[in-house]
Write a structure and sequence with these properties.
Elements: H1 7-21, H2 26-39, E1 43-44, E2 60-65, E3 69-74, E4 85-91, E5 96-107, E6 110-118, E7 131-140, E8 146-152, E9 186-189, H3 217-227, E10 234-243, E11 248-250, E12 256-259, H4 262-280, E13 291-297, H5 314-322, H6 326-334, E14 337-341, E15 344-345, E16 367-370, H7 381-393, E17 398-401, H8 413-418, E18 423-428, E19 430-432, E20 439-442, H9 444-465
Length: 470
Amino acid sequence: MMLQVSQSSSEAARRFIAFVNASPTPFHAVYNASVRLEASGFKKIREADDWEKILQPRGKYYFTRNQSSLVAFTIPPNWKQGTGLSIVATHADSPNLRVRPISKREKVGYLQVGVETYGGGIWHSWLDRDLSLAGRVVVTQRDGTFQSKLIKVDRPLLRIPTLAIHLDRNVNDNLKFNQETEFVPILGIVAETLNKTSKDDKVANTTAASIQGNHHPALLSVIAGELSVSPEEIHDFELHLYDTQPSVLGGINNEFMFSPRMDNQVCSFCAVDAISTYASSSNFNLLEGNVNCIALFNHEEIGSVSTSGAESSLIPSLLQRLSPTPALHSRSVARSFLVSADMGHAIHPNFTSKHEDNHQPTMNGGIVIKTNAKQKYASDAIGSFIVKKLVERKGGKVQEYEVRNDMACGSTVGPMLSKLGLRTVDVGNAMLSMHSIRETAGSHDVQHAIDLFTSLFEGFAELDKTLTVD
């Protein structure tokens, strides 16, 4: 029996595909999330602002930190200090390759670009892909000031070629390569460099803020052209490699999405979509209850320890500013609930033994509740019950995931945020090939996540009144 994709599921999946295609880096994801929020009436505030003069009941606000993390929240009509928060926490970063501060390399006539691996990628999936560059660049403005600008080069620039099988006859039995010496992208080939030494083309940095000597002039020229500046006006950058092949719907009935960065831009997109749609609805000004909030963090793939990661001050600062005294802060935390949303592992038809027999989530099977007795996930019976009731409100289904005893368990932002005292549950959508350059997920599940998050914003506070624990 073929799975039929409903119109709402298809529309949600297509909106996600447009988002991820426009968001090759966390910087772009945060920017595109900001655009969507502002279109729904959210006002940008800054951490340096005096919020006591800004925040109002029925208000919709968001702020960013370092262009790579975002927090958005809505104030209910009956808001007062000490009100709880209903939070969806995600992350917008994914494993990838990043250009080194000194990237210029040249070997046997090839221009190469030095890169560093970020996160736990399936690195062989990056071989023989049409790669390009995206990120942010610090440039000089016409008035002499400096600005960090986003860049996305929309054509293939780089490639990491595999070695021909004729030169490595055992490649299909044991594919191994050195990530430092055998995983260097090629940028081009310049015929006249074949018989030159590298010192013939050496360019020195003229000042401390100059990077002209650190990168190939041809690379800097491409960046400058994209930003309509001169190469000398480029002072620094953070550039990520990305696959230029667009994300698409696939499968016999478009039941799949084939895409990079679905871990975890799917959950990030769904959080933004849910709070934007909720805040634009006719009953937004009528619903009472918690402050509703989404948080898109950076650096989850490397441990979340940064100014823009989940272990930063982003959520503690928000809690403190909304409820500034110790007593009000404690009341707010006790009334809050956090849904940590990150992608999960679907059962793989070719590797069924990798899942515990009774915990085998499927794509398009509904929200996955992730549990681990060792608290690699923060879910417990209370959090799981709340999620099930919220999903039930929208007529959805839930699945359970727990890792086998003979395998290590991954983790996400949930456990570290639960240390704040927030009730926390870890959920996600089921997917295949997590951390590959091309992942697979269910197109139905985009709407499933949006429905859960919307139900949280609409119904958690009322549900919480019916639950007695302590």
